[in-house]
């Protein structure tokens, strides 16, 4: 059995399970952007009811800069961090790649991260189907573990396992539906 | 695991008219393992199972069972092999309606030439094990869906098969009964050392397997395969 999550690269903080750093990096892959532009792109695609605070963008970009994952390509006159134009570095691309390739930890409400990964994969021309396959395998691994655990006679423990299993099953049904609609999704996302 | 594969399908193709039901499917099954075959409706899961079990002849590709080439076998030898080595469970029990549940379970043994009394004694033990001893004297039409599936599982296991082919065995059951049938099926298979090829599109059913393969558009990859 594979160990799973010992290897994780944390380059940025997570909000609601979503790594803002990786998402901003991913958004930079299509070309350099200014801070304010990044925030807008993020909010539009992934912000939903929770737009990024400017402070969050700049602290995240400062960390990415420090870690060599982005570089400053130019500064517009007027100053201020929102005027900086960021470009992703090779190390940054590798980091996004690793993040997209690393399956998310299966948990009841991971759709947001997974949705982000699917959209980013589609936006960056990577295989969203592979990503979904990897995730399905990861979910099934956990479901097997919980199913094995259910063979004990502890009914209360079976109950909590079933709770988890039904949530995981719901995730998987979403994965399957998404996998079946990837072509349409790709068209909609890159429009 | 490095055990010699029991059943190995390589690049199997099967068309029905212009429909390519299987378009290059791989699958390896080792002794005693439970392999789930997953995938969307119409992707070719049942066709793969039918080819593996020698029920349907593949157009091309390699199908080996314990070193023997299934595609080169005569129809007579293949059905003999099915009777001696394979057990089957389908979505709807496919029990013989005129016979009692006990007689249904005894069929594989009777076909193998066992005498009625010995066969029915073994059948009774399997019904007991699957917790449906009380319906032994009833006909399939008189039992519930869950009971009928347990009877079908007993029939699949009674003759000591090396492989059980199960196509959506819980498809017609509610989740509680489905789970019970899966538990009984996989426990019995593990105890007897039988391998199970389990076709299902339900993740909670697939979670009873040791590993899964996914069929998409008639194609499947098996990452576990030994080359
Ligand atoms: N006997 C047949 N004659 C003609 N076409 C067939 C036959 N059996 C299967 N097909 C076709 O082959 C394809 C694969 O069918 P198959 O039954 O293997 O799918 P499946 O994955 O088992 O689907 P489901 O989950 O709905 O049972 C389908 O397009 C189906 O219509
Ligand atoms: Mg089918």
TrEMBL record, chain B:
Residues 7-226 form the ABC transporter domain. GO terms for molecular function: ATP binding. It holds the Pfam family ABC_tran. Keywords: ATP-binding, Nucleotide-binding, Transport. InterPro entries: AAA+_ATPase (IPR003593), ABC_transporter-like_ATP-bd (IPR003439), ABC_transpr_LolD-like (IPR015854), MacB-like_ATP-bd (IPR017911), P-loop_NTPase (IPR027417). PANTHER family: ABC TRANSPORTER RELATED, IMPORT ATP-BINDING PROTEIN. This is ABC transporter ATP-binding protein. It comes from Actinacidiphila acidipaludis. The lineage of its organism: Bacteria, Bacillati, Actinomycetota, Actinomycetes, Kitasatosporales.
């Amino acid at each position: 059995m594979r160990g799973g999550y010992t290897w994780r690269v944390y380059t940025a903080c997570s909000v609601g399970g979503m790594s803002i750093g990786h998402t901003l990096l991913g958004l930079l892959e299509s070309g350099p952007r200014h801070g304010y532009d990044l925030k807008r792109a993020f909010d539009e695609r992934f912000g939903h009811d929770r737009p990024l605070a400017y402070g969050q963008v700049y602290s995240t970009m400062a960390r990415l800069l420090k870690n060599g994952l982005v570089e400053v390509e130019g500064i517009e006159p007027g100053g201020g961090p929102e005027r900086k134009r960021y470009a992703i570095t090779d190390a940054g691309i590798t980091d996004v790649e690793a993040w997209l390739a690393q399956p998310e930890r299966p948990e009841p409400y991971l759709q947001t991260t997974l949705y982000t990964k699917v959209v980013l994969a589609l936006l960056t021309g990577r295989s969203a189907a592979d990503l979904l396959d990897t995730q399905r395998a990861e979910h099934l691994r956990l479901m097997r573990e919980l199913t094995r655990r259910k063979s004990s006679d502890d009914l209360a423990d079976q109950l909590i396992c079933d709770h988890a299993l039904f949530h995981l099953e719901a995730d998987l049904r979403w994965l399957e539906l998404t996998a079946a609609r990837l072509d349409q999704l790709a068209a909609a996302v890159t429009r | 695991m490095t055990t010699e594969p029991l059943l190995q399908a390589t690049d199997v193709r099967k068309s029905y008219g212009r429909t390519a039901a299987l378009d290059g499917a791989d699958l390896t099954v080792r002794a005693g393992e439970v392999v789930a075959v997953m995938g969307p409706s119409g992707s070719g899961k049942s066709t793969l199972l039918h080819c593996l079990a020698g029920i349907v002849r593949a157009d091309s590709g390699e199908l080996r069972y314990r070193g023997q080439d299934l595609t080169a076998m005569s129809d007579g030898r293949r059905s003999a092999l099915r009777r001696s080595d394979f057990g089957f469970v389908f979505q709807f029990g496919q029990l013989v309606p005129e016979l009692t549940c006990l007689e249904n379970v005894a069929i594989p043994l009777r076909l193998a030439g066992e005498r009625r009394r010995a066969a029915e004694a073994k059948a009774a033990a399997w019904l007991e094990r699957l917790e449906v001893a009380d319906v032994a004297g009833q006909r399939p039409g008189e039992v519930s869906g869950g009971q009928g599936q347990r009877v079908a599982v007993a029939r699949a296991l009674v003759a000591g098969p090396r492989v059980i082919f199960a196509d959506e065995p819980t498809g017609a059951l509610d989740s509680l009964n489905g789970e019970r049938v899966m538990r009984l099926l996989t426990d019995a298979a593990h105890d007897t050392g039988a391998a199970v090829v389990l076709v299902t599109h339900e993740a909670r059913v697939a979670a009873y397997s040791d590993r899964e393969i996914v069929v998409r558009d008639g194609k499947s990859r098996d990452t576990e395969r030994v080359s």
